[in-house]
């Protein structure tokens, strides 16, 4: 049975329907910006236990809808649950981020990984969290499902953590491209099974996070990232999809040809520059500098209005990357409020 929403502005905008104002949500809205998240999280020994507790994940997902009045919820999870389901365990170190005790270095490492449904079957806790969230939301707003893009997941699996240069992962593309493609295909097969499961559990739109897209030279982005994004988009025809390839301004023509509805932009990419490259058919999402939200309410309102003016129609308002955890809530409210007060000119 199709969902019935009290507020379906986000899905109408993603489908390209004419709307009065752009919908608004924030990447990383579920999490540390909210005192109620920090209170809930304090009951758990670590991030992974929290993520694997569907009741907690569902509560964290709904918190920003209650507190901020955003037009969409995003399921509380992490992109690193996919490598874990494939058999590569990670730790989330307080204040330092993720770390993989073992990394992928050779063919034996890739051969040992699970993929497709055999890997995705370990992600039942995310499907449970999605189903529980849908029940709690009771149609208030649509629910976004997500996964990391294959290149970004490869980067974590090869580097073992975040990195200033991603030189280990980038090196593999030159020194062992066959191994890189084998690994990317296994990640892609897993991601397709995982996102299919998310849709079955109630996700209304899917976003792919290619957080390290901007690390690759254009030819490598075209060879090692775009074909796998295409496979994922083609495997999920029935649901709207957003591709957020951070800092991949150089790949916008290729991204514009993907069978997805929405392209996410980081704050370095001018809306008109992106529009000229992706064409008219796509909806653009983004892209206020997250640091603008540290400013006073007037500055935030002016920055948000200028962004809205530059995008014009066919836009979903968001930041250019995830909201930083120490952002004042008043700043987030000023941003959301400025978008919700905006009306497109008629005609
Ligand atoms: O509100 C939401 O967006 C939903 C939840 C969400 C999280 N991670 C929760 C989280 C989403 C969509 C992600 C995606 C994610 N995770 C990305 C892609 C988006 C991006 O920022 O580029 C990436 C690269 C990761 C990997 C990751 N997870 C890192 C690098 C870190 C540590 C840095 C940090 O932000 O602390 C995480 C941990 C993480 N994921 C936290 C949360 C709320 C913080 C840990 C905690 O609360 O204990």
Report on this model:
The protein has helices at residues 9-14, 35-41, 47-51, 54-68, 81-86, 107-111, 117-120, 124-137, 150-159, 167-175, 177-200, 218-224, 226-235, 252-256, 271-278, 297-311, 329-341, and strands spanning 73-74, 91-93, 97-99, 143-148, 205-210, 241-245, 262-264, 283-288, 315-319. It has 347 residues and is α/β, with parallel strands linked by helices. It has a single domain (9-340), classed as Alpha-Beta Barrel (TIM Barrel), CATH 3.20.20.210. The strands form two sheets. It has a seven-stranded parallel beta sheet. The protein has a two-stranded antiparallel sheet with strand order 2-3. The longest helix is centred in the middle third of the chain and has 24 residues, at 177-200. It is globular, with a radius of gyration of 19 Å. The two termini are 35 Å apart. 51% of the residues are buried. The model has no long low-confidence stretch (mean pLDDT 97). The site of coproporphyrinogen III (CP3) has 21 residues, from strand 3.
Number of domains: 1
Cofactors, ions and other ligands in the entry: coproporphyrinogen III
Summarize the helix and strand pattern as letters.
HHHHEHEEHHHEHHHEHHEHEHEHEH
User: C-alpha Rg, in Å?
Assistant: 19 Å
CATH architecture: Alpha-Beta Barrel
Number of DSSP E strands: 9
Q: What is the strand content?
A: 5-15%
Shape: globular
Low-confidence stretches: none
In spatial order, strands of the major sheet run 1-4-5-6-7-8-9
Q: Give the helix/strand class.
A: alpha/beta
Mean pLDDT: 97
Here the CATH topology equals TIM Barrel
Largest sheet: 7 strands, parallel
Tally of helical runs = 17
CATH level-1 class: Alpha Beta
């Amino acid at each position: 049975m199709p969902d019935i929403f009290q507020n379906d502005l986000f899905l109408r905008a993603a489908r390209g329907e004419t709307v009065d104002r752009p919908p608004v949500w924030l990447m990383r809205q579920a999490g540390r910006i909210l005192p109620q998240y920090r209170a809930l999280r304090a009951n758990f020994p670590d991030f992974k236990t929290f993520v694997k507790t569907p009741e907690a994940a569902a509560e964290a997902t709904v918190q920003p809808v209650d507190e901020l009045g955003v037009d969409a919820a995003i399921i509380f999870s992490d992109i690193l649950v996919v490598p874990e389901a494939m058999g590569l365990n990670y730790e989330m170190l307080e204040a330092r981020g993720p770390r993989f005790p073992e990394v992928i270095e050779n063919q034996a490492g890739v051969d040992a990984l699970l993929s497709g449904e055999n890997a995705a079957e370990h992600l039942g806790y995310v499907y449970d969290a999605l189903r529980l969230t849908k029940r709690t939301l009771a149609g208030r707003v649509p629910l976004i499902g997500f996964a990391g893009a294959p290149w970004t997941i490869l980067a974590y699996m090869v580097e073992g953590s975040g990195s200033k240069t991603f030189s280990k992962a980038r090196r593999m593309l030159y020194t062992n491209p066959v191994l890189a493609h084998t690994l990317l295909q296994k990640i892609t097969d897993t991601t397709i099974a995982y996102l299919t499961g998310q849709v079955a559990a109630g996700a209304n739109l899917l976003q792919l996070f290619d957080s390290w897209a901007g690390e690759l030279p254009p030819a490598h982005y075209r060879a090692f990232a775009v074909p796998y994004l295409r496979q994922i988009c083609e495997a999920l025809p029935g649901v709207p999809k957003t591709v957020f390839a951070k800092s991949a301004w150089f790949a916008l023509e290729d991204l514009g040809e993907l069978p997805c509805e929405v392209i996410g932009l980081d704050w370095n990419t001018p809306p008109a520059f992106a529009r000229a490259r992706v064409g008219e058919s796509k909806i653009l999402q983004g892209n206020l500098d997250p640091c603008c939200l540290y400013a006073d309410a007037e500055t935030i309102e002016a920055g948000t209005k200028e962004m809205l003016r530059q995008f014009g129609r066919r836009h979903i308002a968001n930041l250019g990357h995830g909201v930083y955890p120490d952002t004042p809530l008043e700043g987030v409210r000023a941003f959301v409020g400025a978008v919700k007060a905006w009306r497109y000119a008629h005609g």
